[in-house]
């Protein structure tokens, strides 16, 4: 018997830490197939999107400064403007913070929202609002998420797994918080944990059966050939075929960067860049929603030094991703969203940093068939609040629904047994759609 070890640890909506071990028996009775069948019980009722689109959601945890990232405001008084300066982009009249020279070169393929805002300056509460579209003031006092994340809604709508490749619809490559299913239930939680997706897809046997990775891969190749020759796959039911494909099909290769062109791997770089490249591969293999997390943005002191450390890492990874997706002709199919839970106070504090500030925050997008090469909205003279065209988390949510082909009026049953709208007040950002 083979054991598929997902090594998945995360907090469910009941606060319990889970580790999943899925045992795969004979080809005619895959345990994973049974799990998929249970997880997909409502798929027929909810329907599936006809759009073959995906979202990669890059979370800058801690609250990235909107000033030093995408709205440097060099016309403001010195204590408000970007301490890292600015860089001109390929879009006339548009500048970014001084750390983002790579993104400046692909700005014509991106859109920067300078009027994104909400009203919760707590880390947990702000995260919940951005990830779900709804405020939850109890989160920062130990409360649990009360609404499902956009990724979990996508999994509920499309089904937890791609029907032909078996790929999970929703994959987490780094923990965010409030990125789970809430009342939708654990079948729609993200697959994968803490950037160790390759381990999630590793097949392990009893000690002594297969001595190393090479012999394991040889055994899997032999299993594929035998299954094809004997017509085993055709004899499986639909859910078992999904399980077979998940274990032996595209999924393991999608998680394995050794399958990628070394020149592309080098372009992205390691760390966050490698995760961004993996996200692109997962989308190509059938994932609908992939989340990544790159923290360290709670910059209460010496923001210039902190930005010089974090900014270039994001700049390289994002610019490589945007250019790569464009070169591969996937710009209409994959939407990149870059955000965090809130922005930072416009005025530099006594420690040369910035504090929590929800009334204005950062947001950048690329692809998804949206209109790129522009800024959306404008901040006021001292980057405190939106001056015009305010964008809320529900507007962002509605825009993502538009890209994924999810009906804006979609409803699901909440924990009280009542149907509730996933988006109540938001609308797709007009200048983007």
Q: Could you please describe the fold and organization of this structure?
A:
With 433 residues, the protein is an alpha/beta fold. It has a single domain, classed as Alkaline Phosphatase, subunit A (3-Layer(aba) Sandwich), CATH 3.40.720.10. The chain has helices at residues 31-39, 43-46, 101-105, 123-132, 150-158, 197-200, 213-230, 238-248, 250-254, 262-268, 272-284, 303-327, 393-404; strands at 2-5, 21-24, 54-59, 86-88, 95-97, 110-116, 170-172, 203-204, 289-293, 334-339, 343-344, 356-357, 361-367, 374-376, 378-379, 386-388, 411-413, 419-421. A seven-stranded mixed beta sheet has the order 7-9-3-10-13-6-14, sandwiched between helices. A three-stranded antiparallel beta sheet has the order 2-1-8. The protein has a two-stranded antiparallel sheet with strand order 4-5. A hairpin with a 6-residue loop joins β15 (378-379) and β16. α1 crosses α8, α4 runs parallel beside α13 (393-404) and α11 (272-284) runs parallel beside α12. The protein is globular and about 70 Å long. Mean pLDDT is 83; it is low at 1-36, 42-50 and 193-211.
Summarize the structure.
With 433 residues, the chain is α/β, with parallel strands linked by helices. The protein is built from 13 helices and 18 strands.
Key descriptive features of the protein:
single chain, alpha/beta, three-stranded antiparallel beta sheet, 13 helices, 30% helix, 16% strand, globular
């Amino acid at each position: 018997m083979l054991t598929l070890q997902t090594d998945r640890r995360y907090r469910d909506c009941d606060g319990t830490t889970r580790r999943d071990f899925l045992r795969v028996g004979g080809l005619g009775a895959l345990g994973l197939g049974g799990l998929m069948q249970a997880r997909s019980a409502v798929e027929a009722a909810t329907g599936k999107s006809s759009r073959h689109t995906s979202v990669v959601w890059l979370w800058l945890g801690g609250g990235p400064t909107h000033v030093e990232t995408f709205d440097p405001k060099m016309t403001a008084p010195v204590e408000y403007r970007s301490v890292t300066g600015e860089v001109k982009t390929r879009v006339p009249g548009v500048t970014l913070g001084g750390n983002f020279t790579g993104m400046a070169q692909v700005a014509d393929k991106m859109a920067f929202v300078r009027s994104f805002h909400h009203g919760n300056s707590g880390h947990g509460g702000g995260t919940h609002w951005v990830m779900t579209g709804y405020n939850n003031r109890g989160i920062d006092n130990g409360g649990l998420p009360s609404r499902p994340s956009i990724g979990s809604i996508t999994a509920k709508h499309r089904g937890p797994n791609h029907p032909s490749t078996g790929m999970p619809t929703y994959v987490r490559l780094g923990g965010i918080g409030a990125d789970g299913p809430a009342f939708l239930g654990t079948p729609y939680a993200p697959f994968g944990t803490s950037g160790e997706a390759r381990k999630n897809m590793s097949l392990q046997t009893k000690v002594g059966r297969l001595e190393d990775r090479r012999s394991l891969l040889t055994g899997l190749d032999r299993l594929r050939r035998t299954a094809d020759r004997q017509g085993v796959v055709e004899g499986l039911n639909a859910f078992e075929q999904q399980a077979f494909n998940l274990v032996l099909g595209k999924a393991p290769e999608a998680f394995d960067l050794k399958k990628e062109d070394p020149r592309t791997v080098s372009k992205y770089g390691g760390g966050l860049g490698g995760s961004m490249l993996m996200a692109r591969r997962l989308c190509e293999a059938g994932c609908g929603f992939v989340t990544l997390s790159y923290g360290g943005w709670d910059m209460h002191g010496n923001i210039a030094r902190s930005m010089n450390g974090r900014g270039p890492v994001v700049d390289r990874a994002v610019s490589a991703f945007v250019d790569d997706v464009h070169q591969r002709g996937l710009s209409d199919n994959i939407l990149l969203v870059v955000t965090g839970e809130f922005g930072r106070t416009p005025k530099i504090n006594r420690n040369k940093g910035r504090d929590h500030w929800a009334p204005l925050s950062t947001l950048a997008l690329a692809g998804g068939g949206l209109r790129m090469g522009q800024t959306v909205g404008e901040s006021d003279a001292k980057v405190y609040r939106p001056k015009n065209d305010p964008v809320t988390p529900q507007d962002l949510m509605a825009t993502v629904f538009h890209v994924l082909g999810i009906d804006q009026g979609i409803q699901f049953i909440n924990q009280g047994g009542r149907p509730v709208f996933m988006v109540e007040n938001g609308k797709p950002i007009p200048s983007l759609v």
